[in-house]
Amino acid sequence: MGTYNFEQIIDRTNTxxxxxxxxxxxxxxxxxxxxxxxxxxxxxxxEITAAIEKRAQHGIFGYTYPKEEYQxxxxxxxxxxxxxxxxxxxxxxxxGVVFAISMAVRAVTEEGEAVLIQTPVYYPFxxxxxxxxxxxxxxxxxxxxxxxxxxxSIDFARFEDLIIKNSVKVFLLCSPHNPVGRVWTKEELTxxxxxxxxxxxxxxxxxxxxxxxxxxxxHIPIASINKDIENITITCTSPSKTFNLAGLQLSNxxxxxxxIRKLFKKExxxxxxxxxxxxxxxxxxxxxxxGECWLEELKVYLLENIAYVRNFVDTKMPKVIVTIPEGTxxxxxxxxxxxxxxxxxxxxIQNKAKLWLDEGIIFAK
Length: 365
Description:
Aspartate Aminotransferase, domain 2; two-stranded parallel sheet; 12 helices
């Protein structure tokens, strides 16, 4: 029995929860189970709640900015958990990773220039590129089925060819990869970095799921591979996925290159955003100070959940191909062997199974 209770069921309705309180507004039935938002239904670390409560008792919530103690906490977490040494001046604070990716794309590219992604991938990637008037280039991940399980890999020859043919300026890396759960190896990351260095491509790395890695797998920040790769990388991190803090709107963006960091800050300044959320600061500092034991117990529990899903699918829906995540807490399911049209599949999932899931097609656009 662990220290923390992940079995506790907490009613999230009537809390303005995007996941639970907007079912009808988004065209779903009230009785569906919402599993479409990547936040957890576990209470966060008690020390985080205590830190927020203590700050709230002060009663004044004026403009706030992180100081040295906060920076040290983030630096220590990155060094201890991910073996990446960063400096205080490299940190830039944003209200979220998606916001940061958008700022980064705008900062280091011009309209019409090409940005490379690898689908299936977190769908805001393509939205950000296209809505900002950049050219979207896709190097789809290679998919194959081994032992009735989905496996994804990178076609490096095509990766480089697309960069050359389209004069790609930026590569959006998802690491660990959402939604297929790949934890990229050092060899894979090194090869990505070397290709990007060769062709003057800046890497924007979404590493928000960095703390969810299982077994012998290890998350390696691509910027930690070597100084040359670090110099072309914008690393986007946040405690939001790890400790269920998405609503507190705080991410830590790591940019070693002074010129790139200056461009990023200039672009961010155009939005009028200056100071991060006061409670986000308190929560992140508490999370990275006290949260390691909680996180390790959580990962054990998540692995049990993943095993449950895998067993259920193998037993009840044997034609479904499961991609077992090496990282993240997402499970990717391939229903293609059932031969159903998209609308029929969605109807069965929503109206018969009563589940609200993200459709695979939105990750492949």
